[in-house]
Design a protein that fits this description.
It contains 17 helices and ten strands. With 414 residues, it is of the alpha/beta class. The strands form two sheets. Strands 1-9-10-6-5-2-3-4 form an eight-stranded mixed β-sheet, sandwiched between helices. Strand 2, helix 3 and strand 3 (81-85) form a beta-alpha-beta unit. Helix 2 packs across helix 3 (70-77) and helix 5 crosses helix 8 (157-168). The relative contact order is 0.15.
Length: 414
């Protein structure tokens, strides 16, 4: 295959703007929506790119910033093997727990084996200060009993799925959650929850966790899991720094679909402290250097190193889809796909920007809750920059090439 490597081919990229996938709520398989997770994209996004670029079920899809696993789950639903990676142990649990999805009978049988009412010693003052702003004492006792059962049997795949369903019900804003009124997307701190309870005059009442777990399972499994999902048995799951994916071989992945951490947007540790405690990984989470970048230069360096690894593991001819957005930085709006393009032009000669697709859509319920106005604040669009790896590597002097890029852009007014 002839590769056109001239300058115009590499920089004259048209940004296509359209509604490439639906902006409607929860139209994909319900297992995508079991658990809320900050900064996650809709499953329509990976579905769109998988259909666009793959037509052979032997291909492998990966996400190096997997989050709640939207890319992984959608790839499996479509019959593709997937590779999950995320440094966060909470993300690892959320995605790995859905590798095996139990049938209703085995789910209920295993849940019924757990003595959730078992008596426990009185929690100490520190425990009460941390957890009683969220849970009634009897609800907290049941959570401890379920947690203990899981921590004693971490390899029990049915129990892991029960814990996953329970994790999705841990805190939220309706009676279906175990907690008092709180946020479902992230774990607020105890002091903030106390203030919220006082402000709303909330009475902390007992909530039976078993009935809520069963209700949530039944609700999420009204639609049958397709037989193609069995490919998940061949998935791979990693907790690696995206800048060093050393366990993943060169040229082994066909398509990467991912969304990296944005600039100074999400505190992944604080947002997941209660979830991390429940599944027994709070200490592990606290020891990690999860990316929160206050500086554009820090983010660019992180992305340069991460893209280098993505290029290494993607097969020649394979594509890397990076979903970013526009962010406010030092009173300016920055389109992060332009930053990614500059990184590619400055540092890499074995990939090129294939296309840039900008999906315009109205904000979701979550965005409206946060009082974010469409096309004014926040990440208003899915801005997807698509890189394609050359079949052959061309030798280009990065310094002189960068000068040509700047000159050509000036002449073309881009």
């Amino acid at each position: 295959m002839m590769i056109n490597n001239n300058l115009a081919y590499r920089i004259n990229i048209t940004k296509q703007e359209d509604e490439f996938w639906t902006s409607n709520q929860r139209k994909m398989h319900p297992i995508h929506y079991t658990i809320s997770y900050r900064a996650s994209f809709k499953p329509e996004l990976p579905e769109f790119f998988i259909r666009r670029y793959l037509n052979d079920k032997t291909k492998v899809v990966m996400d190096p910033f997997s989050g709640r696993g939207t890319t992984i789950i959608q790839a499996n639903l479509m019959g593709y093997k997937a590779i999950h990676n995320d440094l966060s142990p909470v993300s690892y649990f959320i995605v790995k727990a859905r590798q095996y999805i139990p049938e209703k009978e085995e789910f209920l049988n295993r849940l019924n084996q757990i003595d959730l009412k078992k008596n426990r010693k009185e929690p100490n003052l520190e425990e009460k200060e941390r957890f009683y702003p969220f849970f009634h004492p009897d609800t907290y006792k049941e959570l401890l009993n379920l947690r203990e059962e899981y921590l004693n049997n971490p390899d029990d795949k049915i129990l892991k799925y029960i814990m996953f369903i329970a994790l999705s019900r841990l805190h939220g804003h309706s009676d279906g959650f175990f907690s008092v009124y709180s946020f479902p997307q992230f774990s607020v701190l105890p002091e903030a929850q106390k203030k919220n309870n006082l402000r709303r005059n909330i009475k902390i009442i007992y909530k039976d966790i078993k009935s809520r777990i069963i209700k949530k399972y039944l609700n999420d499994h009204k639609i049958e899991i397709p037989s193609e999902y069995k490919i998940s048995n061949f998935n791979e799951y990693y907790q690696l720094d995206s800048q060093n994916l050393y366990m993943i071989p060169d040229n082994s992945v066909d398509l990467i679909i991912t969304s990296p951490p944005f600039l100074d947007k999400v505190n992944y540790k604080q947002d997941n402290w209660l979830r991390a405690w429940f599944i027994g990984v709070e200490e592990e989470l606290n020891d990690l250097a999860l990316g929160i970048y206050n500086s554009l230069e820090e983010w660019k360096e992180f992305m340069k190193n991460s893209i280098k690894e993505m290029i290494r593991i993607i097969k020649p001819g394979g594509r890397i889809v990076i979903e970013v957005g526009e962010v406010k930085y030092k009173k300016n709006t920055i389109f992060l796909e332009d930053v990614i393009m500059d990184i590619i032009n400055n540092y890499f000669n074995n990939v090129y920007v294939d296309e840039i697709l900008i999906n315009k859509q109205m904000f979701t319920k979550l965005s409206n809750c946060w009082k974010i106005e469409n096309n004014i604040k926040g990440t208003n669009t899915n801005r997807c920059i698509v890189l394609k790896k050359y079949y052959h590597t061309y030798k280009i002097n990065p310094v002189s090439f960068n000068k040509k890029i700047k000159l050509t852009r000036k002449l073309l007014n881009i």
